[in-house]
Amino acid sequence: MSQQDEANPTPDALPFPSIRNIKASSPLCWFARAWGDLKACPIPSLFYGFCFAAMGLLITFVFEHAYEYTSGLTSGFLLLGPFLAMGLYEISRRRELGQPCALAPTLVVWKRNAGNIGVFAVVLGIVFLVWARASLVVFALFYNNEMPNLSGFLEQIIKLENIEFLTVYFCIGLLFATIAFGVSVVSIPLMLDRNQDAVTAMLASAGALIRNPVTMMAWAASIVVMTIIGFMTFHIGLVVVMPLVGHASWHAYRDLIEPLPAK
């Protein structure tokens, strides 16, 4: 068997991932390690950060006067983040292995397990599309005021105007975010690191959430807070925030999943 085959065994030869119990304070350690990855590999990491920021700015400018679309698309950052951050996972993986920091290999990392990553992308894509449609329905049914621009929307949230709309929108958004988060905690890292199949990877992610609910809630809250900080800086903060979240997600995977037995 070649070295590449050993690093990426066939899914049939893999046991179901063993999930660890971890401390509630673990997310702090993950961000500390992520900062180390960012400092060690700044150019490829910040490249992805600029991509996230550019996407956020484009969405905001295009839909400035149709915020019902912007809010749904912006929420898609949380739903599709694990897929978009594959390159950041690969940067952290390569650093662990002592390989050089390089952008080019991370751009095509999906080829390592393209079929299963494609299945996972379809699942997240469906969740995102349903959420975008649900977002429009909530606006149509519960938003009674004139449609605001970005500044008007934020002002209404701060003043808690139209509380019925905000409550329903938050509850439905939380439901979809929980589904997306539950199936994606360690899914793509597993598929990249072990050539794991998509179904097993998603089940392992759900198992990690069920086994460590407090830690996973803290981790999810950390991601949301950091993403909001990025948005509140007109998406410029995403240049640094998203690489940190991506690298930290890789370290979350390392702590949550037992390594394969040495051969």
Structure notes:
- The protein has one domain.
- It has helices at 3-7, 26-40, 42-62, 67-84, 86-96, 104-107, 114-142, 150-159, 163-184, 187-194, 198-211, 213-232, 238-256.
- Helix content is 75%, strand content 0%.
Q: What is the arithmetic mean of pLDDT?
A: 83
Helix-strand category: mainly alpha
In one word, what is the shape? globular
Helix content: over 70%
Distance between the termini: 12 Å
The biggest sheet, with number of strands, parallel, antiparallel or mixed sense and barrel status, is: none
Strand and helix layout:
Blueprint: H1 3-7, H2 26-40, H3 42-62, H4 67-84, H5 86-96, H6 104-107, H7 114-142, H8 150-159, H9 163-184, H10 187-194, H11 198-211, H12 213-232, H13 238-256
What are the defining features of this structure?
263 residues, mainly alpha
Question: Summed up, what is this model?
Answer:
This protein is mainly α and 263 residues long. It has helices at residues 3-7, 26-40, 42-62, 67-84, 86-96, 104-107, 114-142, 150-159, 163-184, 187-194, 198-211, 213-232, 238-256.
